Amino acid sequence: MPQLNPNPWFFIMLTSWLTFSLIIQPKLLSLTPTNTPSNQTSPTPKTSPWTWPWT
Fold first, then answer.
1. Where is this region: Disordered (predicted)?
2. Rounded distance between C-alpha atoms, residue 25 and residue 16, angstroms
3. In which band, very low, low, confident or very high, does the pLDDT at 55 lie, cut at 50, 70 and 90?
4. Could you state, in order of their start, the residue ranges of all structural domains in the chain?
5. CA angle 11, 13, 16 (to 5 degrees)
6. Rounded Cα distance, 5 and 12, in Å
7. Is residue 15 scored above 90 in pLDDT?
8. The model's pTM
9. Is the predicted pLDDT of residue 34 greater than 60, yes or no?
10. What is the pLDDT of residue 16?
């Protein structure tokens, strides 16, 4: 059963995780979000009751 032989697959998994952890992840974390959240509260809209014509 070649699936149980970890020899080639372990190296591939280790290489891919090291590539992600050391190269790709720092590049992604250095990006700044374009829309930073603000602490302002949104104004509550003023609502008026609906007047139904049949009441």
1. 34-55
2. 12
3. low
4. 1-29
5. 105
6. 13
7. yes
8. 0.45
9. yes
10. 92
- Residue burial 6-43, b: 16+ Cβ < 10 Å; e: rest: eeeeeeeeeeeeeeeeeeeeeeeeeeeeeeeeeeeeee
DSSP the chain: -GGG-HHHHHHHHHHHHHHIIIIIHHHHHTPPPSS----PPPPPPP------TT-
User: CA 16 → CA 3, 20, 31, 49, 52, distances in Å?
Assistant: 19, 6, 22, 60, 65
Q: How far apart are CA 25 and CA 3, in angstroms?
A: 29
Provide the token pair at 27. 């590049």
